[in-house]
């Protein structure tokens, strides 16, 4: 039904008076790629998406869809589909009429219109719902109608602003897989805004991590999770242990570190060799309690301070025997064969040198002008009016 177009933004920026919401963002998105803009509230991800859609005018930079430079084009001439977080369905129109709206605005009628709507509803598994009104649908069904409406005119690019945010956890996870499967089958290019790390990891071909209006890192889900370039990325994506360390040498072509008097081996992967103080990151699931006779590159004695049951895992806080306090979070799988540790129990823990990552600890200026969450919401509310939504649906 559709085919994707490449999308490119170059040096995109947005200024609200003296407040800088987005600063010099450049991303190349390939045709048929699913790319998520991920970051906390106020990071600039939604403002970036709204500039792509045409609801916001960039202060600087350019936007290209395919070979077309669309930066100055109005919303209805960009040929893109948009799915909003609240779906923006017309409450007085049936499912059929909601999906047919964009086709009618293009002059499509008769059998061609009916066939287009039927195909779009079939794609989202809502055949037979044509006569229902939005208030008669569940949240998941309303989301599918909004998706069908965005796809019915076969756009090369679909922009989605947290479209699953209003769904409960179980339905949201189900819709993540359905949406990803549909996108792959159609080959549509999708730009997806989310603040949910798990959602981005599950659905994306690549993730653009944003913070304070800038891009922190672009990469595949595996690259973002396994080799974060900055402390922000490492802390925002998943859970991490951060240890203040000092480089004292090398071992087996990897760095040898001093952490509170303990010698720790790590890897240079994703980090330029240097001397002096660094930050070592270890994911909790990479650290394991060591049974008798089991060895690891890094082995340390400690005492269990806390144990928290988390369903399929148990999280332990372990204090290492070191010259200064060192507390590590250990995520151990909850298996019948796994030993269950108790508070105040002495334990030996360890991890592979390749699982310890050195990361950049560059701090951003505290004086940098960054748009906060409330300013972002106010600015977007002023432009994302009912008229604007109608324009994008008819685009």
TrEMBL record:
The record's listing under InterPro entries reads: AAA+_ATPase, ABC_SmlMolc_Importer, ABC_transporter-like_ATP-bd, ABC_transporter-like_CS, Mo/tungstate-bd_C_term_dom, P-loop_NTPase, PotA-like, PotA_ATP-bd
Q: Which domain of life is it from?
A: Bacteria
Keywords in UniProt for this one? ATP-binding, Cell membrane, Membrane, Nucleotide-binding, Translocase, Transport
A Pfam family per the record? TOBE_2
Can you list the GO cellular component terms from the UniProt entry? ATP-binding cassette (ABC) transporter complex
Reactions catalysed according to its record: ATP + H2O + polyamine-[polyamine-binding protein]Side 1 = ADP + phosphate + polyamineSide 2 + [polyamine-binding protein]Side 1
Q: Does the keyword Transport apply?
A: yes
Q: What is its EC number?
A: 7.6.2.11
Summary of subunit composition and partner proteins:
The complex is composed of two ATP-binding proteins (PotA), two transmembrane proteins (PotB and PotC) and a solute-binding protein (PotD).
Quote the NCBIfam families the UniProt record gives.
potA (TIGR01187)
Described purpose of this protein according to its UniProt entry: Part of the ABC transporter complex PotABCD involved in spermidine/putrescine import. Responsible for energy coupling to the transport system. Involved in beta-(1-->2)glucan export. Transmembrane domains (TMD) form a pore in the inner membrane and the ATP-binding domain (NBD) is responsible for energy generation.
Give the protein name, as stated in the record.
Spermidine/putrescine import ATP-binding protein PotA
